[in-house]
Amino acid sequence: MDLLENLKKIEEEAELALAGADSLEKLEELRIVFLGKKGKITDVLKQMGKISPEERPVIGQEANKLKDRLNKLLGARKEELADVVRKQRLEEERIDITLPGTEVSAGRAHPLRRVTREIEEIFIGLGFTIEEGPEIETDYNNFEALNVPKYHPARDLQDTFYIDDHYLLRTHTSPVQVRTMARQKPPIRIIAPGRVYRSDEIDASHSPVFYQAEGLVIDKNISFADLKGTIQLFVQAVFGEDTRTRFRPSYFPFTEPSAEVDISCVICRGEGCRLCSHTGWLEILGSGMVHPRVLEMAGIDPEEYSGFAFGMGLDRITMLKYGINDIRLLYENDQRFLHQF
Ligand code: DAH
After folding, report:
1. Domain for residue 160, yes or no?
2. What is the residue range of 79's domain?
3. What's the alpha-carbon Rg for the chain, to the nearest Å?
4. Prediction pTM value
5. Does residue 221 sit in the same domain as residue 260?
6. Which amino acid residue places its CA nearest to atom 8 of ligand 1?
7. Residue 172 to residues 199, 233, 237, 314, Cα–Cα distance (Å)
8. Residues 175 and 250 reside in one and the same domain
9. DSSP symbol at 306
10. Least C-beta-crowded within 10 Å: which of 105, 190, 256, 300?
11. Residues 220, 160: Cα–Cα separation, whole Å
12. Whose Cα sits closest to atom 2 in ligand 1?
């Protein structure tokens, strides 16, 4: 057998095998098969004894050349495979910078808070200041000083959470009137938003905890016309220029005369619909001229000064403004609801 031909065959075989090797392990296997101590080239060299001494150097040279060549091919193929592995890894670990990041959701103001702020801004624009009072009030500030003496039937109108004979959870923001008049001489122009409590059953329009804003203006020559003008301006600022206002005679112990204020329905604009019980009007606040007795009790001379007051439900105004039909939504803090505002 011609050893040269043998080497040629080995070369062809090796080239083919190396080109087809698809892993570093496979390459190592091939290296052993062709170049190893018991490999195919060594096999050829072992047969040198069978050939003539003249031929030996030629075969030896050719065998060495083949070894060199195969080593080079092996190295090159190794590089190629390493490159494939590197690319594969880069692909696997690739970061898609176009993917949206983890959302960091920003907090936002609760609808009640938004409306409260809006109302505060309106009254600040009219020269009012913001006042606050405690939620735990005295019976005196909540009732007595507002012309609601003990056993007065008006106390039945409000289901009060009493703490003891003396303290209670305020049932309205009106005691802030009393506190302000005790501290401040007229002229007074305040708006007092805050949380109030009544022992009501919870339903779509009642919550034992809710929000009101109280208004009080006291100065010389304050008339019912000032009350009407102020309320009208406020209503138009909150509900829109084309919203109409209606004053209806009413009764509150702390005002005389008293009036309830309706606005033209925010849904049907006065046509009549389910929201306004087909009247075209929605009640939004109570108001009146401060009762002379209330002024007197606060040490303000009713002969010299007069004033008006009003109280509104902030929950109701928020609900009307945003079309919310259940007050409980304002207190459950369901993120899906709150994120709409
Ligand atoms: N305090 C009343 C209530 O809770 C609302 C109110 C009516 C306040 C007339 C006033 C007022 O200041 O003048 O129902």
Report:
1. yes
2. 2-92
3. 46
4. 0.72
5. yes
6. 311
7. 12, 23, 24, 12
8. yes
9. E
10. 105
11. 35
12. 311
Q: Omega before 153 cis (within 30°)?
A: no
Q: What is the DSSP letter of 274?
A: T
Total domains present in the chain: 2
Task: Clarify whether residues 53 and 138 are in a common domain.
Answer: no
- Give residue 78 CA to ligand 1 midpoint distance, Å: 90
Q: Which amino acid, one-letter code, is at 94?
A: R
Same domain, 174 and 311: yes
Ordered per-residue pLDDT tens for the chain, 341 residues = 588 888 899 999 999 988 888 888 999 999 999 999 998 989 888 888 888 888 888 888 888 998 999 999 999 999 998 998 899 999 999 988 899 888 888 888 999 999 999 999 999 999 999 999 999 999 999 999 999 988 876 676 558 999 998 999 999 999 999 999 999 999 999 999 999 999 889 999 999 999 999 999 999 999 999 999 999 999 999 999 999 999 999 999 999 999 999 999 999 999 999 999 999 999 999 999 999 999 999 999 999 999 999 999 999 999 999 999 999 999 999 999 999 98
Backbone angles phi, psi at 22, to 5 degrees: -115, 10
Residue 97 lies in a domain: no
Q: Exposed, middle or buried by CB within 10 Å (0-12, 13-18, 19+), for 201?
A: exposed
Residue 5: is it exposed, middle or buried by C-beta count within 10 angstroms (0-12/13-18/19+)?
exposed
Q: Are 248 and 260 in contact (CB under 8 A)?
A: yes
Work out the number of other CB atoms within 10 angstroms of the CB of residue 220: 10
Helix (H, G, I), strand (E, B), or coil: what is residue 114? helix
Report the 10 Å Cβ neighbour count for 292: 16
First to last CA, the chain: 93
Domain with residue 249: its CATH number is 3.30.930.10
Give me ligand 1 centre to Cα 124, in Å.
20
Burial class (CB in 10 A: 0-12, 13-18, 19+), 178: buried
Using a 6 Å CB cutoff, which residues line ligand 1?
172, 174, 214, 252, 254-255, 286-288, 309-311
Within 8 A by CB and 6+ apart from 292, the residues are 256, 302
Residue 312 CA: nearest ligand 1 atom is 5
Token duo for residue 220: 């010389």
